Amino acid sequence: MNTLNGKHIILGITGGIAAYKSAELTRRLRDAGAVVRVVMTHGATEFVTPLTFQALSGNPVHTELLDENAEAGMGHIELARWADAILIAPASANCMAKLAQGRADDLLTTLCLASDAPLAIAPAMNRIMWSNVATQDNFNVLNQRGVHLFGPASGAQACGETGEGRMLEVPELINALSGLFKSGVLQGINVLITAGPTYEPIDPVRFIGNRSSGRMGFALAQAAREAGANVTLVSGPSNEATPEDVRRIDVETAAQMHEAVMQQVRHSRIFISAAAVADYRPKTASTKKLKKHDAELTIELERNEDILSAVAGSSPGPFVVGFAAETENLETNARTKLENKSLDMIAANLVGKDANAQDIGFNSEYNALHVLWTDGAQVLEQARKTTLARELINLVAHQFNKNRQHEKNTA
Q1: 159 flagged as catalytic
Q2: Backbone phi, psi, residue 41, to 5°
């Protein structure tokens, strides 16, 4: 599975002759489907020009910490929020020292401190610099902090010497970076996910629907697949691309989604209901376009079947995760839904605009989740939905495996 497809990758480049390899790395990342933004230190620009990486990445190259064109001049915060992962290749001895000390004296080191995305470095330096006690101490500090260390390799160096300190070759870096998104926490588990809105027809050209884009459900499908699960995605109308190796079933109405889910859920160990299913539908849909005759039009509605309750009430049933989109009283309403529907977990989010007037929830790339279960809760802070999806899948996997172990112990 190509786990880099659609990922937002920041490629940091520091001053070193191995920077020439980063041009090929940029190309290969894009070939893998990643969206790449390049951040260069001033030293790096002495080896390869920013224009080279702008042409290869298709995006402007970032070099300055304070960017007057960025939001409030805070370019490092924008980039930190944008990234799914940060890869520094090459990472010089000086860069490693700065990271180990927690310094933030340029754009690259500052955004590393400001981002909670996975950070990976590919060291590249002279063999003696690499073996120096200070460098090795910095290497160990970064390793203990959870920084992913790719390499270095051993071989001929630009200085004419041979030894350890070469940057890994591009295919090795691509493979290593791909591995950051493969957790295996749901390896072999059948997971069923719903996504998107439902459209309830009024007549052949009109319908009752909602603003859901399907982004969260599709991101969850991608994250579950990266976690090793066998994923089936039942989706209402959505323009989102189907993640690789995910089986997709397209539906339009709530009734169609209910039928598809009930057919698939018997084979599933985990059910995640991320779709925004219409609660009501027109009692009678006209077979012909309704004409405008009167000043008012009354449409009689009837309840759709509650898919989430149906799955939660099945026996034996899967581990059930619901969603709650709210405009107020987030935790109270979510806790009530968790208990009333007998769910194993619920992910609640506000819809509308946050305090900074940024769209969150429906039809937005960003969200924040308050995740609740019977004896616990965890807040997933505002981030891109792809990031939140990976965090939520890890929580689901933890609780699912915990429940499974409890069942074994009480059997």
Answers
A1: yes
A2: -75, 165
Instruction: Catalytic residue, from 159, 255, 262, 285: name it.
Output: 159
Q: Please check whether residue 221 is in contact with residue 236, taking contact to mean a CB–CB distance below 8 angstroms.
A: no
Q: Are 305 and 255 in contact (CB under 8 A)?
A: yes
Q: Over the stretch 325-349, which tens digit does the pLDDT of each residue have?
A: 888 888 899 999 999 999 999 999 8
CATH superfamily of 8-179: Flavin prenyltransferase-like (3.40.50.1950)
CATH 3.40.50.1950 residue spans of the chain: 8-179
CA atoms of 350 and 382, how far apart (whole Å): 11
CATH code of domain 190-410: 3.40.50.10300
47 token code pair: 């080896």
- Nearest-CA neighbor of 204 among 131, 285, 263, 261? 285
Nearest residue to 212 via CA among 260, 303, 273, 259: 273
Report the alpha-carbon distance of residue 364 to residue 216 in Å, rounded: 9
pTM of the model: 0.82
